[in-house]
Automatic annotation (TrEMBL):
Keywords: ATP-binding, Cell membrane, Membrane, Nucleotide-binding, Sulfate transport, Translocase, Transport. Signal peptide: none annotated. It comes from the Bacteria. The keyword Membrane applies. Residues 3-237 form the ABC transporter domain. This is Sulfate/thiosulfate import ATP-binding protein CysA 2. It comes from Alishewanella longhuensis. One of its GO terms (molecular function) is ATP binding. The keyword Phosphoprotein does not apply.
Length: 240
């Protein structure tokens, strides 16, 4: 699923959150939106998701204009900073959730759901947690379960908002490597928001650097780091 963002603008009152943003993301790419706090990263992610509507501009998925479409029609999976797992449900029930709430017509059988949940738990290497409750898992494990849950409905793309933000440094480092490996296996088009350069460098195929609602630079990690395009990027990346 490719994503095309064309001349997107968004204001909150007088505040310009996105200033004529243009961005094309290729199918299967893992893209980092990197920038300081308040630079518009989350707003852009939410507009791609359909959780927020742009004031102007066009969003296309696979070249189809989906600008006005509601979030429920867009087929995206989400992972947020604070893993919103259901506390009263087991890990299996959490992962199955998106499938069990489908309209009857589209809902897989119980056996199919169970098989799928097993496969997803294997994929995130947490099969042994199936019957536990979220409170019995570590933060990193919970975030991997959140990812399995997002993948259960076979999303066309995965959007991650500071997915490692709430975790300590060691767990973050592990999860970064793990997300990279997972993406190499499943190749779902993914966009993740981070303000952490190391995270973007280590995980992403592509880095989009934002500042004050604008895209300052866009390229592979090597391109962005070897050739900081302008004084902002140079400064932000720490005088590489
Ligand atoms: P980032 O993810 O880069 O930190 P955001 O996209 O979250 O930046 O926000 C950009 C700016 O827009 C922030 O300064 C924030 O205060 C403002 N903003 C975001 N959402 C809203 C909203 N719903 N209402 C008012 N202001 C908002």
């Amino acid at each position: 699923m490719s994503i095309s963002i064309e001349q997107v603008n968004k204001r909150f009152g007088n505040f310009v959150a996105l200033d004529n943003v243009n961005l094309a993301i290729k199918t299967g790419e893992l893209t980092a939106l990197l920038g300081p706090s308040g630079s518009g990263k989350t707003t852009l992610l939410r507009i791609i998701a359909g959780l927020e509507q742009a004031d102007s501009g066009i969003i296309r998925f696979n070249n189809e204009d989906i600008t006005g479409q509601h979030v429920s029609e867009r087929g995206v999976g989400f992972v947020f900073q604070h893993y919103a797992l259901f506390k009263h449900m087991t890990v299996s029930e959490n992962v199955a959730y998106g499938l069990t709430v489908k309209p009857k017509k589209f809902r897989p059988s119980k056996a199919e759901i169970a098989k799928k949940v097993n496969n997803l738990l294997e994929l995130v290497q947490l099969g042994w947690t199936a019957d536990r409750y979220p409170s019995q898992l570590s933060g990193g494990q919970r975030q991997r379960i959140a990812l399995a849950r997002a993948l259960a409905v076979e999303p066309k793309m995965l959007l991650l908002d500071e997915p490692f933000g709430a975790l300590d440094a060691k767990v973050r480092a592990e999860l970064r490597r793990w997300l990279r490996r997972l993406h190499d296996e499943i190749h779902v088009t993914s966009v993740f928001v981070t303000h952490d350069q190391e995270e973007a460098l280590e995980v992403a195929d592509r880095i989009v650097v934002m500042n004050k609602g604008r895209i300052e630079q866009d390229g592979t990690p090597e391109q962005v780091y070897d050739n900081p395009a302008n004084p902002f990027v140079y400064e932000f990346l720490g005088n590489v």
